[in-house]
Amino acid sequence: MLKGSLWAMLAAGVMMSIGCGFQQGTAESSSAAKGGLAVIDLDVVAKSIGRTQEINESWQVRKNALDQALQKLQANFNEQLTAKKTEFGETPTEEQTKQLAAMRQDAANKLVQAGRTAQGDLEKYRQKMVADFRAEMRPYAQQVASSKGLGIVIPKNEGFLLSVDPGVDITADVISAYAAKSPAAKPSATTAAKPLTPAPAAPAETAAAPEAETTR
What we know:
There is one protein chain. The protein is mainly alpha-helical. The protein is 53% helix and 4% strand. The protein is built from 5 helices and 2 strands, in the order αβαααβα. Strands 1-2 form a two-stranded parallel ribbon.
């Protein structure tokens, strides 16, 4: 049976900061703006409205689906290898021994590719969820910034801004604006999209799912 852990590749950097890459307001949507910068901490917004939990739950469901697919591939490979060993008997010939080794190596190569495919699928899924959240928050940020006479909205994240005047931080105002228009709590997004089906391979033993964090 093959040993290893492809899911270790997925454990690092599961959820990057939601705030990274947030776009500034447009002139059309900020016609009342007089200029100046508004600052928003989208990670705080996400946690406050429950979106961080939704994203983490949805990511976990997606990860579990891919995990199960890899385990199924591993079981299929082990069955094939066991059948071949039975066919060769307890004392396989040198040629048969080489054939078994080739089967293991081929399965290992395909397993690596399957793991990379799953990793790419999970990362694209994460990026889409974060992008959807940014797009949802953009009009609220533009509205609040415009009402304060601020023309551009930038994300507040560690290492980017040395200091922020409380007067231009619109995080709390955006949370309030969202709550005013969406008072009812939205259900958690726990439905996973259909996972990719990698080429038949021998999946490795899977690592425990990491605790998904939206802010890292």
